[in-house]
Amino acid sequence: MLRFPFGMPITPVQQQDTSPKRIFVLGVYASAVHARWVDDSGKTLINALAVASEPEIFWRGDDAGSVIERIPIPPGAGRLIAASKRLNGPSGDALDSMFLEPLGSTRGDAWLCDLLPESRCNPKQRAAIKREYDPRRDALGLPDYDFPPVPAILATEERRLAIQREIIAASPEVLITLGDLPLKWFTSHYGSHTTLGVYGRTIETYGRLHDLVIAGHALKLLPLVHPRQAARLGAHSAKWSKLHAHWMKHVQTKAQLQQESEHLA
User: Fold this and answer.
1) pTM, entire model
2) Which helix (H) or strand (E) holds 35?
């Protein structure tokens, strides 16, 4: 079984409300609950260590402390404290306020999905674990972990067909893709472009609806940036952030969706 440092299992994070939804959102891979790891003297060893699977898909950081408190820590290994709000659930917050709300929608209207439903270890996280956790593992009896990196293939054929089944079950009017990777690894198999830039890099072209058919289900594709770009979380492109900000305020996608709903009705 895949496990985080300190031993918690890495479990799939998937949509729980499986009733039909008007919007389907496809992201990249699940995030994790992050803790600040400090030693017994109070010195910070790792500022944001992934230690548990998110309680829900596109988690908003709620109750991070209660999740972390349930993780057993061997004597002498210090303690885990919930990392800052900006490190727990920021993409979930951004999804709500910067993607769904501009469309006049809430999570109740949306089916959320990722190419990879389990968390993956990025290079910075891997380096921090190797630097601080690995040397203490034998000395302090810390649990082994198996926290795989982001794979070269983000969606196998088996996974693509599983996502397709979720879309058919959701029966959405609109499929929102977050960034390039959902386009490359999923929708391109149904005729979409493989990158967001092809759909529009200007305020006149970004955030428009496009026709798409998935397994016989006709819908509108709405290719948008990843929440980390929109909310300027860490490394990001200022140009894409500005385009999305303009879309939020000025592009009448909400009106377009209303027209589509009336047409389908």
Assistant:
1) 0.93
2) strand 32-38
Contact 35, 87 (CB under 8 A): no
Look up tokens 């990196």; give the residue. 149
What 3-state class would DSSP assign to 91? Answer: helix
Over residues 14-56, the pLDDT tens digits come to 999 999 999 999 999 999 999 999 999 999 999 999 999 999 9
Which residues, 6+ apart, have CB-to-CB distance to 5 below 8 Å? Answer: 49, 50, 51, 129, 133, 142, 143, 145, 147
Q: What does the block give as tokens for 81?
A: 């404290």
- 259: its two tokens: 């027209």
**Contact yes or no for 138/79 (Cβ under 8 A):** no
Beta strands 217-224 and 79-82: pairing type? unpaired
Amino acid at 247: W
Helix or strand run (H / E) with residue 96: none
Determine the Cα–Cα distance for residues 104 and 252; give it in Å rounded to an integer: 11
> CB–CB of 57/143 below 8 Å?
no
The neighbouring-strand residues paired with 32 are 53
Other Cβ atoms less than 10 A from the Cβ of 72: the count is 9
Q: Is 141 helix (H, G, I), strand (E, B) or coil?
A: coil
Name the strands in the sheet holding 79-82, side by side, starting at the edge strand that comes first in the sequence: 44-53, 32-38, 79-82
Residue where the block lists tokens 């998937």: 14
